[in-house]
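Readers outside the structure-tokenisation community will struggle with the description of the input data as it stands. What matters is that the chain and its backbone geometry are given together, residue for residue. For illustration, here is how one protein appears when written out as sequence plus structure tokens:

…
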Amino acid sequence: MKTISRYLLKEIAPPWLLSLIVLTFILVMTHILQLMDLVVNRGVGLSAVTKLLLFITPSFLMITIPISLLIGILVALGRLSRDNEITVLKSSGLSLYQLLPPIVAASCAALAITSAMSFFLVPYGNLATKTLLFDLMQRRASLGIKEKVFNDDFKGLMIYANTIPAHGGYMEELFIADSRLMKNPTTITASRGYLFSDPESRAFVLRLVEGSTHTVDTESKVYKRMDFSSYDVRLDLEDPAASTAGSFHKSKTEMSLAELYGELGDQNLPELRRREHVIEMHKRFAMPAAALVFGLLGLSLGIGQPRSGKSKGFVIGLAVIVVYYVMQLTGDALGEMGALPLVAATWGPDCILFMAGLVLLTMKAREISPAFFLHRLLRHRGIARRSNSGAGRKDRP
């Protein structure tokens, strides 16, 4: 059995690693355009982009590791079935249940890696991504404003500074066109302005000194002027990454398990946010557990007909993956709405597919076809109904 287990693991490893690389690369390519935009149009260095790529990779691996394990098992067992090696093992007295140890070993390895991703690396990577984006936006905000140049990097604002000293500590003779309120566009003039960022609120503020605001109400045709000695203008960068970098509170995907549990102890926490946090806590355990579920399904579905095609494993694997994640997304939505218990919403896909894998493995081990099993089940239910109806008639006076 040790020899057979080692042989089976050697067959599973190459397609597992190959599919892991391909699937992770595909997910990375979905973000590569945004990363290239940071390099080409935003002036971000390659080192910062490399860090961003490293920070978001754990969230991809947490998904691709169980999926690639399923594909690797299906491909390996499909090859053994086509070459009649499974038939030889059965004829030598080996039961399919004896193939479980190497599958369980591979699944436990995937479970351990994805658990480390889910519990530690993914929250850290999400928070590090937000922090790095904020630093990049801060650098861009401080370097983006140049003297005697109309700057439109900030959402709804056009900023012009006539003079900026060499040390860059402040700006003089500023002109700002504020169109964030489309009905009441405002023109702001100031003798001096200071740009700073607040690390706690993750906001950029331009503090203006000794100036005035000029507003025209387009409906009533009324002109308003307000003089000020100090006036703060909040700056929002015209960048998709700025919305990610600009929020202060940690999101649920950036919190550790201890932080999620601690926030759940807050009695003033809104009910919707409470359900979202509970779902996130259960998903931290349920998603790594998918490795065990996919391992069992891979053993149950991988052993097929000797003449089955080479692409059958990929097709079956993709079908199982689509079914699993559709069930997961549906469960999350129903759980957040309160239409389904939170435990059932998060653990339902794992439990359903795990039971399906056990039933299929039992059928394959006993060499029972699905059609025969369904026929026996329907026939048994029909006999039970007739017996119950007959017993009811006999009891009648």
